[in-house]
Amino acid sequence: MSKDDKQCRPYPGASVTSKLLFYFLIFLIMMLLVVWVFQVMLLNVFYRNTKMSEMERISETIQDAIIIGNDQPSSHVISRAEEYLICIRVFRVLPGDKIEQLWDVDVNDDCFLHSIPEEKLRMLYHKALAQEGHLQTVFPRSDRHPEFEVESGQAPDHVGNRIFTERLSMIGVDVCYAGQEQVPYVIMVNSALTPLSATVATLRVQFVWIAMILVGLALLMAMVFARSIVSPIVRMNQTAKQLAKGNYDVHFEGEGYLETRELADTLNYASKELSQNDRLQKELIANVSHDLRTPLTMIKGYGEIMRDIPGENTPENMQTIIDETERLSELVSALLDISRLQADAAELKREPFDLTEQLLISVERYDKLRGLDGYTVLFEYDSHVTVNADISMILRVLYNLINNGINYAGDDKTVIVRQECHDDLVRISVIDHGVGIAPDQIQLIWDRYYKVDRVHKRAVVGTGLGLSIVKTVLERHGAIYGVDSEVGKGSTFWFELPIEKE
Question: CATH number of the domain at 348-498, out of 3.30.565.10, 3.10.20.740, 1.20.1090.10, 3.50.50.60?
């Protein structure tokens, strides 16, 4: 199987469409289950509790009015009774258990409360007294012969949470006391409970149709949502395959959702970085090949001259071969150093040392360039400063920055090394007056073999890998570093280290 076949073969697992459909169906089933329980199974409970609560509210309103001395019905009570078809009888109990009716509300031709005799009313009153002034019960009744069993004060077993299949009646009795003599007042409320079997049958039929319609809508919505969500991902997947084949000019589009737009922006950024890394890698190979080829060519050429031409075996020619061999050795060592530093294989050996003294020694070693090529390296400082760092690595940073300044020095061939102290930090700056660096290229100069002018030239000193080593060493020390540059006026490379206090 080829690599392309492996990348293009279908992957196991559910698609977004099937996942969305599954979640929609699960949600739909849960919603239908809730509707079934509340609208069908518990319809009796909610219906009876609603009736009972309204009867209790009407009774409490009447009691409050009686207690404050108003024993006449209010318009609010009458309107509520008419709205919920609740009959009301209010009377007071005189000495000798005599009942004096004050007023009543008869809103139902089938009202049980207005059809019972006075003995039954008196029995309900005593039953309420036995239960701390409150009685509430449900009982079955027929049109002509009401079956009223209030001794138990409970509804028959078949009423419970089952659906009403016969006519039921609910009655509530409350006793309150008013006036200085605390005369007992009796408030009786009654409401017929309508049989719900036909209603439940209707709801079941409706439930089946609603379930079928909702399942169809769930399928449709899942397909629409899945297509809307998946389409930008599919397009980005196709574009990513082009990117994997080395086409870095692709552009990812993730319109539609915030997450897909963010993913598209991230992939576009990754594509740009990959393109840049690919270009830098090619430049690295070309530049390293150039730096390797030049000394090898010179070594081979001088060796052939010394072999074929008598008298060319001179110390000067031998020295040229030695110099080019040393340049090759420096280049290989620099590449190895970068690899070791980036792999954290080189251990830091921190110790306090006089940074200013080391700078003086380092700058003096460049004095011979003044006589050979006219280059001048100056050192400016106010006082000696001690730092705690790896002296060999910091010296490598200094040499590489000075070498870089010499390689890119301007017509004055002058490089300035400046030491400045502020707060608890010492800043070392290496200044040249060369071509400078464009703002969009400053972050790239720390890469291996990156050339600002894009024309590879042989370095006056060093190997061309200095800034990459500088970056790695300073980051391992946790130092702050950077470069300030202006095109045509030169560059200032700098880094800062904490001052070691005595």
Answer: 3.30.565.10
